[in-house]
Amino acid sequence: MLEKYTQEINIQIDSYLKTLPDSGIYLPFKYIMNLGGKRFRPSLLLLATELFNGSTKEAINPAIGIEVFHNFSLVHDDIMDGAPLRRGKSPVHLKWDLNMGILSGDVMFAQANSLIADCYPHHLKQVVRLYNKTAVEVCEGQDLDMEFETRENVSIENYIKMIRLKTAVLVACALKIGAIIGDADSNDAALMYDFGINLGIAFQIHDDILDLYGDQKVFGKQIGGDIIEGKHSVLLITAKAQANKEQLANITELLNNLDLSNEEKVKQVSNIYNQLNVKSLSSILQNDYYNKALNAIQGLSISTKNKNILFSFAENLMKREV
To answer: Residue 137: which residues within 8 A CB-CB, separation 6 or more?
Structure first.
């Protein structure tokens, strides 16, 4: 669906990385960028630009900037989460060290700002304002995510707010920047943003489901990592809401049990999840936001052909296993 944009993004990212030094803080910068990833955020920016007949030449550097910002957030998130894997490889803070992880992330953030601002002057104010708002929101989302680690009770509403900020706003930002560069009217730009928000929420719920029910060889991250971390994923929050007193006490005891191996902890907690039909209930929530994303597409004043491109992308994203 996004192959032609992804190929172009990869080519342009390779060219961009060659302009950076091959030493110091730029080594982890290049490492995390070269680990791959789906590149769907920058690809969506290019797609949105073309849907509104804009210039992909203008859009390419802001698109790279979105991907650099996304990878910056991964470097710092991995540090805060103590993640053992990133895309099946060592995260930056383990391959190098903590200080290098922080510093390389900082320079990635600065470089992302420069790339985002490299658009035509008449688009600059809108694009930079939206990007800066998004960057702040992503940090707020990570703050909420960390806050949840010390809270006993997190509601589904709290969770949706967190993933909206931490994940969905960057997807929405990419789509709206593309629409702005394509000179879409304000209503269409807002609908593209709404599409991105709702698809981004559905995407993160799906990611939480894959964390436990995905194939590690395909998924690229530790299976059951959210259980091991005691993270308030959609699965855990749903389980707590559905559990009786005995099941709730068992979940709490298992998550706090330091004597259990990680494998046994994941096994026993997932058994309770299965009793409570957690996977199915989480999938229903995912589909609610997926359908909201599809409704936003319907309102766009673009051709049916172009709407179908967005429909196909959304459908393929929800079928992903990585």
So the answer is: 165, 169
pLDDT attached to residue 221: 61
Q: Give which of 117, 85, 96, 77 is closest to 211, Cα–Cα.
A: 85
CATH superfamily of 3-318: Farnesyl Diphosphate Synthase (1.10.600.10)
Which residues, including other chains, have CB under 8 Å from residue 290's CB and lie 6 or more apart?
198, 199, 202, 314, 318
CA pair distance 157, 166, nearest whole angstrom: 14
- Measure the CA–CA gap between 161 and 141, rounded to whole angstroms: 8
Mean pLDDT value across residues 26-40: 93
- Indicate the pTM of the whole model: 0.91
Does residue 216 carry a pLDDT above 80? no
CA-based nearest residue to 166, from 138, 203, 144: 138
**Average pLDDT value over all residues in the chain:** 94
Question: Residue 6: which of 318, 322, 313 has the closest Cα?
Answer: 313
Distance between CA atoms of 293 and 103, rounded to whole angstroms? 37
What is the spatial distance between Cα 279 and Cα 178, in angstroms, rounded to a whole number?
34
Q: Which two tokens stand for residue 72?
A: 């910056």
Burial 63-89 (b: 16+ CB within 10 A, else e): bbbbbbbbbbbbbbbbbebebebbbee
Question: 246: exposed, middle or buried (C-beta count within 10 Å: 0-12, 13-18, 19+)?
Answer: exposed
State the distance between the two ends of the chain, measured CA to CA, in whole angstroms: 16
**In this structure, which amino acid lies at residue 152?**
E
> Distances from the Cα of 288 to the Cαs of 203, 214, 283, in angstroms?
12, 21, 9
Q: Token pair for residue 198?
A: 């709702």
- CA dihedral sign, ordered 311, 233, 38, 41: positive
